[in-house]
Amino acid sequence: MLLKDIQFLDDSTRPAIPDLPGLTEAQKAPGEHLRMIHDHLRDNMVTLGRLIARAAEGKASAQEVEAETADLVMVSNYRRFGTLCGQYCQFVHGHHSIEDRALFPSIAAQGPAFKAIADRLTAEHVVVHELLERLIDALIRLADAPGSGHFEDAVSVFRALEKVLLSHLGYEEEAIGDALGYFDIM
Length: 186
Known about the structure:
Layout: H1 25-56, H2 62-69, H3 73-81, H4 84-108, H5 112-144, H6 148-182
Helix pairs in contact: 1-6, 3-4, 4-5, 5-6
């Protein structure tokens, strides 16, 4: 349903990653930094996914959900700024904006193969943002009218976002992680 039109989930549709000969450990460091930033997103998605599964099975009370999410970056930001999804979207949007405006143009300047990668990653950002917006809408509907139908809708969008975001993050790290240091971009 939500995933049927998203072609980039098929890795064969993504641009090939060029070899970077003679890559040093120091040149790999910026890619590791990118991976650490992405790990925050992954960790939040894993925690939320587990809580959703437990809630769907009736095995998570509101107090347990609150306790288990208390240390999530996006939840602490939620408490400061008011909306969990709004803050998560803001974090992802900010991260993607930095990539779209600074990293990807620098990567694209390294030649046609890297331009194809940067263009693809930019297009994937659009899909991630669309799913984030759909998740916000689904969660607003759930908050306004709690019920199994709205819960299932929210879970469906969350699972689609999870699959898309994790696929995107992995490809991005593989495609540009080493290039960031190799070309002295970061």
